């Protein structure tokens, strides 16, 4: 990738950040500059904007001008950009996402994937911290994470995902657990590129509850033992013995048939969207939080049961689930 491509990509990656804009004068001047080769004018304007020390402002006040500069005078623009960045060094804090490692370098845990989808979709800066299963409770206590739930006797339960968001305050970062709570927080604090299109929040929450409490239940008989096998050796040593045993062949086949019943039912519901989309996405034309919750389960199946599970699921219901996974693939980066 060329240095020009890197600059273009760097600018594009910031287009959803919430920034304070430049003065009205600069904004109006920028928008009225024409595209007939007035490079020096464009450079003068870009210099004023870049000097503010906040690169995302460039996109906020006019993508046309930045593209023109990169095309017609890339050397001058790169020099300008680098010199101003060196005068205005800034270290943007990243959201931290805590995840569980496995044998594979690729993430697998569905609840954590759900939040990774949201972070990627919103184009938020984040990084992953890997925590072995035996270390989860101690690690989360040490960072002040709230319990994700409680046992019947009142003892706290610490599970992942957890995020730490230092972007508002590096000395008092926000620490959250529970995927639905995290999703609500990210939607509230970073409303650009919403995961809940207007008027859909209640329906999506109901959809996600169904995925968690009904749809995924038949999968547990198969997927929990397979997930145990996918853990690191240290993680396996900490797992509960009841998670070890995979059902024998005929019993496992019956379990997959119960799983298929849930997929068939969900397909019949999503078919109601035909005419308002292609029946792939829960909300019609565009992916949303509900799709991320379902696609996270698909990734779990593919990661832990590629031959016995995903090879079936991808063919069910006319390939609908493979199409959903393809629809979400742009948001599968692991940072």
Automatic annotation (TrEMBL):
It holds the Pfam family GST_N_2. Gene3D superfamilies: 1.20.1050.10, Glutaredoxin. InterPro entries: Glutathione-S-Trfase_C_sf, Glutathione_S-Trfase_N, GST_UstS-like_C, Thioredoxin-like_sf. Residues 202-331 form the Glutathione S-transferase UstS-like C-terminal domain. Residues 110-188 form the GST N-terminal domain. This is GST N-terminal domain-containing protein.
